[in-house]
Structure formats: structure tokens, C-alpha cells
Amino acid sequence: HNELKGVWESVIPTTTDTEMKARMIGVQTTMRKLTFLFGCLIGAKILSQTDILSKTLQSPELCATEAHQCANAIVKTLKKERCEEEFNLFWKKVEEKKPALDIDEYEMPRKRRHPKRMTDFFGYINQPDQDFATEKEMFRTYYYQCYDFVINTIEKRFDQPDYKMYENMEAIVTNAVSSKSINALFYEQVLTEGSSFRTLYED
Questions:
Q1: Among candidates 192, 200, 174, which has minimal Cα distance to 64?
Q2: How far apart are CA 8 and CA 11, in angstroms?
Q3: Which pTM does this prediction carry?
């Protein structure tokens, strides 16, 4: 952050290309906003976990069950970080970095109401958007929303009938190779969840 800030301060005054200069000033202005700092820090915090999952899933030797277990472990960690205690620690870090990075004071957005004509047309109630007393309260909501989005995305990716069927089929093959017995109930489960597999095979 400070390295880029130094670049803008040295390059902008000497840039003659007005369009390029305007873009650099725009980036420089954005980097001084609290929303930018918050985005960088929350992104680094969440990606430190999701990157582990991403790298693990790229392993050519990884089986479906192991992939699912890894995803569950990452989701479990993310859910632990999605709490008030973790947010307070995160916000403390944000506050500590603001002076050093020359972050501008944040101005709370004004309360907005949907125009009555839009209410009449679209049919939703003309209520004001959520009102926050402090910037910490508002960014707390953003913090939870970020975690909810990532957690739901990972869970949705692995909570699919076809994936579960693939896991079960993989277990049958693995157990067969290792000469482990599989009860009839498990076979019935695979056949029930693997209807798309049977359809593909029959076609």
C-alpha cells in the first residue's frame, strides 16, 4: 500500500497524459478510502483459508471424499471466524492501520428512501435502508456478509446430488480394490442417489 502510494506521489505530478493522470488520481483516491482498506484486509483474511482449499483441490491424487472433507474443514474454520470476537479483533487491526496508511475519515452514507413512484411500480414497501449508528456497526454487517457468501458458495459447490453419487461410486471402487466388504444398504443408497449415472450408462 505505502509502496503504491509513493509511486502515485512521484509519478502523478510528472505525467502529461491527462487520461492516464486522471486514472492514477482515481486509484490514489480509492486507496485512501476505508472501504478499500476493509476490502483488502477481509479479502486477505478469507483467502488465507480458501487458498488452502484451492491448492488442495488441484492435487491430481485427491479423491472426491478427501476433497469434500477438506472443504468441510475450511468451512468449519470460516464459521469459527464468523463471530463477534473475531470481528472485534479484525476491526482493531483496521483501526490500527488507518493512520499509517493515511486513510480518510469515513462519512456515513445518508439514509435513503425509495421514491414513491418506484414503490407504486415495483410494489415493495417504501422503507429506508438499514440505518447504522457507527461505521463499525456498518462494517460489521459487511464482515458477516463476506463470510456468508464464501461459506454458502463452498457448501453449494459440494452439496450436489451428482457429487454425492460420485463419492459413493468412488467408495465402491476403492473398497472393491482393497477387498473391503460393502453392505447391501450402501449399494441401495448409491443406486438411489446415482439415478443420473444409470441414465447416462443406459443411454
A1: 174
A2: 5
A3: 0.71
